[in-house]
Amino acid sequence: MIDSLLAQDIETVVRHALEEDIREGDITAQLIPAENLATGTVITREQAIICGTAWVDEVFRQLDSSVVITWRVQDGEEVQPGQLLMELTGPARSLLTGERTALNFLQSLSGTATISRQYAALVAGTGIKILDTRKTIPGLRLAQKYAVKVGGCHNHRIGLYDAFLIKENHIAACGGIAAAVNQARSIAPGKPVEVEVETIDELQQALTAGSDIIMLDNFDGDEIREAVAINNGRAKLEVSGNLEAGNIASKAIQGIDYLSSGSLTKHCRAIDLSMRVSLAEH
Q: Is 167 noted as a catalytic residue in this protein?
């Protein structure tokens, strides 16, 4: 799942994270003699889906390649409170300097993967895919979208460049849904064209215009069923608008293809992890 684009992104975001934390140097770590070696162990204090191992590896690769990491889990694995996740050995200074940056990535991405696994379970067996959105932590777009996939949900467009999503303001500026869709086809032939609609009338306009995907924004259950009947398989249907764990099941109506929720990435809570370091015996 970690393709060349994501691998490059990992290197970049880790470098920035280390720069913001260390700058001229870790003055507290300098209290410890440079020659001291140590062992570190990381456990989880709560149930979670693990995600972010590659980011942790990159933290210590950039900080001190002599640190050896032994993983006891892998991305996508469910863990229980108290479970050992990893062991580290190397210079004590390096373990302590890299601790917070490494755990920040691991706990945050595991949080995204964990909530994604919970959401995916809500539509299991329906054939409906839950999609993320662009409501991600700035600088962690690819990382969080990777975590969403690890958790069992799916990615919407990555950014503003890989697919059209024509919303109310775009429609108004272009002079209507048909005009906006036609212009999109002209600008980037082959790119998916999605139109957000707020009414059944707009749905019919989007279908007539030949949209690939139609987003039903804040439709209630009866409106979704009407939209499914009108669509009759002509376009992919996506339901969106304040979707959270408590209401997803009521919107997972046969005939729609996707449910999209910003909650996967913007409301995620970091998993509680703990690292303990002990000096090696001489």
A: yes
